[in-house]
Amino acid sequence: MKGMESIRNIVWRMRNAPHRRNAKEAMEACFLLAKFGCFIHVTNAYLCSVALVYGPSMLPTLNLTGDFILVDRLSTRFGRIGVGDIVLLRSPENPRKIVTKRVMAMEGAHVTFNPNPAHSYNCQTLVVPKGHVWVEGDNMYNSHDSRHFGAIPYGLLQGKAFCRIWPPSSFGPLE
């Protein structure tokens, strides 16, 4: 009987050895970290994300040196984009670049625009094709937008900007 108790004692010690508990705790921490990473990825890719926007094309609405804004990713998926909304879109000329512009017209609307407002007064009129939107920067003299590359397919829209979070002096909803 004594030999059987010592074997049970050895087995019990092996099961409850410190390295085994440490390995279990490490695995639990790894799974928790993986779950958190998945949550952040899904939130950033499909729900809401933070974006840094900078450059002269959206002056005076957004700062030249850069603003951090919140971007609603659901609006583009459910067709909740309208005229006047500020959107992030993949550039049709450089797919690696994300640009920020304002929606000026939706599909089916007639658009009259001047392709080069700094140097001529010639205007053109066209109808925005189905499945496209017309976007322009707020700074018409320093913006590369639909006046240069035409209407944007709806699929290039990445999200709708709805709130500025940095700099703190300008915190609030975007108009």
Residue share in helix: 25-40%
Task: Report the sheet-strand fraction.
Answer: 25-35%
Shape: elongated
Number of strands: 10
Instruction: Using the CA coordinates, give the radius of gyration.
Output: 27 Å
Distance between the termini: 83 Å
Kindly name the structural category.
Answer: alpha+beta
Number of helices: 4
Residue runs with pLDDT of under 50 for 5 or more positions: none
Q: If you had to describe this structure to a student in words, what would you say it looks like?
A:
The protein has 175 residues and is an alpha+beta fold. Helix content is 30%, strand content 30%. The protein contains four helices and ten strands, in the order H-H-E-E-H-E-E-E-E-E-H-E-E-E. The N and C termini lie far apart (83 Å). 22% of the residues are buried.
